Amino acid sequence: MKSQIRNTVVMLAAGAMLAGVSGCGKQQSAAAGAGRADAAANLAESLKVDLSGIKSQDGQPLLLALETKTPPPRPKDPDALPETDPGHWYDMEYAGWNTAKENIPASPKDGAIGKRVIAIINGDHPYLTAYSAGMKKVAEAYRMKLRILSPNWKVDVQNQMLDEAVNEKPDLIILIALDAKVAILQVRKVNQAGIPIILSNMHPDNEAMRYAICWTGPDDWGQFRMLAKVWADKLNRKGGVAYVRHAPGGSPFFARTFGPASELTAYAPDIKTLDMQAPGFEAAKTQQVVSDWIMRFGDKLVGICAADDSAQAIGIAEACKKAGRSDIVVVAAGNSKVGMDAVKAGEIHAITYQSAEADGAVALKAGADWFNGLTVEPVRYLPKHVITQTDVDTFQPAQW
After folding, report:
1. pLDDT, tens digit (0-9, with 9 covering 90-100), for 229-250
2. CA of 148: how far to CAs of 56, 120, 176, 195, in Å?
3. Phi, psi angles (nearest 5°) of residue 211
4. 23-79 tens-digit pLDDT
5. Is the pLDDT of residue 17 over 80?
6. DSSP labels for 215-254?
7. Which CATH class is domain 220-353?
8. In the chain, where the domains are located
9. Do residues 134 and 216 make contact, with C-beta atoms less than 8 angstroms apart?
10. CATH number for the domain formed by residue range(s) 96-217+357-381
């Protein structure tokens, strides 16, 4: 009798356990089903987000029509070519175009709305303020949780910020790599953590593109090749020129010097490079560099190309005024208020059009497209244009 009771108790307990397991399975199944339904609803809502009516500070559309290009065949050994040969810079100019991807996370295809994104920019500068403003407009449209961090031009600080971002495990990281070579280690670390990453604004080394969804930003090489031709025509394709460079290490340091210098090798071979200096983004330091050039080269110096049309442009203008050299033809990356005012005043002949707000917006929009399961090209370029006195008013008021 005791044995029968014991067996009955065991059977009842087992039945209860099976019922509990069965109930738990049903609950898990129901939760999974609800999760899939929520994801589908979020995706549907995300795909309906319309950014077409959002404007930048200058009245231009926030999301400009993007450009693409077909890379030419890669030289057998780019490094063996001289720096004045465009082919020498092939791997930097066309970084990411034909790079085999590695360990890229699959898109969740569950919508962009509500995603957590950490963007780590490169430094404190009015351009980056406008860049961040454009990114925030996209984040607001998709109701994303966006944090933007700045290392103020210090690679070690950027590395620390990246480590902290990885530990937070956001849904996406966007990075403006301060140093093209260091970017390889930075992006690989994020990739190994299983976090998707998009690179923006400054081109990394080509190897870094293996681990990133894509790169977005200005076609610095392409637009400075355009600017070089406008500059050369104004110089009657002859004379000596000098370059005020960007911060060392990043892609603009190379693109905004050797983009035009290598383009002029074929387009205007009688234009000779006299010097290249990187005084930073302080007007006083730039003024000193340019004053030294004017003293050293005299009338041989007929043109200056600047990586920045704000502080650097102010320094160039002051040096030229003090030396009484209104004949020096200045061109620069653009397009700040300082730069556009200088174009109107005739102090700068031409600047590139580069929408800072669009730069930030395009990066986050690529992330939204990825969350939404849409095709994301390996490279997304902002459109290229050279601003002169004939159309500078079209781009007012300035974004920065």
Report:
1. 999 999 999 999 999 999 898 8
2. 19, 6, 11, 17
3. -105, 5
4. 555 555 555 555 788 999 999 999 999 999 999 988 889 998 888 788 999 999 999
5. no
6. EEE--HHHHHHHHHHHHHHHTTT-EEEEEE--STTSHHHH
7. alpha beta
8. 1-48, 96-217+357-381, 220-353
9. no
10. 3.40.50.2300
